[in-house]
Amino acid sequence: MSALNGAVKRRLLPANPAAHVELPSARRVKAVVWTAERIAVWQRTGVRPVVAVWTPQQTGVFLDAAAEHRLYALFHLIAYRGLRRGEAVGLRWEDVDLQGRSLNITQQVVQLGWELEVGEPKTGTGARTVSLDDDSAAALTAWRAAQDEERRRWGPAWQHTGLVFTREDGTGLHPAIVTDTFQAISERAGLPPIRLHDLRHTAASLALQAGVPMKVVSEQLGHSSLAITADTYTSVLPAVAHAAAEAVAGIVPRTFRTSAEPAGAARQELPVQAHAKGLAAAALAGRCQSGPKTDTGRSPGRVNALVRGGAPSGTRTPNPLIKSQLLCQLS
Q1: How many domains does the chain have?
Q2: Which of 187, 302, 311, 330 is spaced 20 to 30 Å from 87 by Cα?
Q3: For the chain, how far is it from start to end, CA to CA, in angstroms?
């Protein structure tokens, strides 16, 4: 559309032929986790989700299977830190700080057909600093030593590209070869299928399950907005939703045992809860006290109290028209 509008401005076209085309709205595909139920359906029907991610256990199986491959560090980096394929292939050693445990994403390799082009990160926020955990830093350190050994073996024939991940002669990797290698390793490991890009989704899902704040995950991935992260990943792992539900339930003080709790497991009331209950009982007694009434039905003392300052601080404003003890408690 923008290209056609540009052609109209340059007077190459009299009008934009697509100006009145209405495209159907597209929804962002949400990632789903490979649960046992989904695996059974896939094995029975061959139908797989559009976007799927591995569980922590499945991710561990893949990394163990890839541990002996020369490109293990690349797959480790995507699985742990969520780099895009083009970002990992285009990563340079000058952008890696192993001592400071970080790396900078400054470029990516884009595949156009079979040809490659080096360009800027996908989005403005794609140019970012990614922190490294100790395991990821160790994987990169081991890979650097292995690459140095390859350079010594190749001697003058080595190609000095400055890239972190290369072929044996130092030339850059083709992204399609990386994808094919990933698929071969995951199939040999007997894992349910995901795309290499879904390994990046897996990294985001694992971070959320580990309790990393959504904004931190969004910055780690280089998303252009927090909404993209939230829309894609909030419903991925059941453990994330379960942990959130437990966190909410955990802040509600309860005295009586629920039917889900075993007999004899009544919760011990904390001192602060007992104190709060005492204050509440005193406030309730004050609200529901009886006494001589005026012709309006109000206790003179309570009328004066309401005129002077209303209900005690922190309590619900009492309704002096309610005379019934039961209705007063329910108000």
Answers
A1: 2
A2: 187
A3: 61
